[in-house]
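Reopening this ticket.

The earlier resolution said the output was attached, but the attachment link was broken on my side. Pasting everything inline this time so it's all in one place.
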Amino acid sequence: MFTEYAWHLPCPQCDADARQPCQAPRKQSRHDRLNKLLTQNGRDPIPAPEYGFMHAQRTAAGVRHRARDIGAAPWREDRTPGVRYDTIDRSEPWTAPSRSDHPELILAPDDVDRSGRARLGANRYDRSTIAWPYGLEDGVARAVRKDPERLARALVHLAVGRSTLVSWASHYGLTSSRREPCCTRWLTRPAHRVCRLDPMTGDRECWDGYSYGRDWRDHPMAWTTTEGRPAALTSAPYLRPEHVATELDILTSRDERLAWISGADGWYGFHTHQIVIWRRDLLGRIDTADRIRDAVQTALSPAIAPPGTT
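Inline output:
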């Protein structure tokens, strides 16, 4: 039935998560009034729907999903007994993706730029440049161009940070999301979607409040799979991981598919501590970018060593 399809989809109207009932008090109230009249007249009450009362937009999404599956399935005579031909996400046990234990480093400047454009896209203000994140943008070098020593250090920082970033993203098959998520709950959705607004306060009903880019979320980046599914959030706060561990444990405990890990500088550097929250079912096991950063520094040295440090 299409209602099963709808049940396994989030509701675009009330923002109910997949496999959770819609917040439909009017439908529930009408059902209760009808059952009250039936009971008063000696009739049996009508049981509630198996998947609860759903909004029309969620039901329509279930109908479209079921229609796509029917259109993609083979003819009945060609179907194999016991084989599923639906694409409902029932949160069944997942198989972790297989990948090499030794990430391939992207080191050559042209290769770094090529991978950066593919993984990060073009700068929205200057399409001829790459959308490097804060701390790795071209302005880092321009700001100190008149000071040779500071310029040399900035160029080393950019070479190591950019190579680390694209090597890490390539290893895990991730692409930067060009749209900013509202909170960690973004990771639980099949596509980019922000939490709905509370009709009374006007604030978004987010898991961790509308504080993206603050506290442990400093220097945030959102990552999707190549298919566009939200897969990971990275940040580089100056706070030590033990100071935010309780909050991260609570956030990831809200969905068994989520996990988090912390490390050292990652690609941002400047004595920050990289934090990664990711979808285990999509990415399997993940490491921070520190091991890749160490390998990049070793591979690029002494080519990137500042003058006078040989």
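Reporter confirms the inline version is readable. The radius of gyration is 25 Å. The mean pLDDT is 86.
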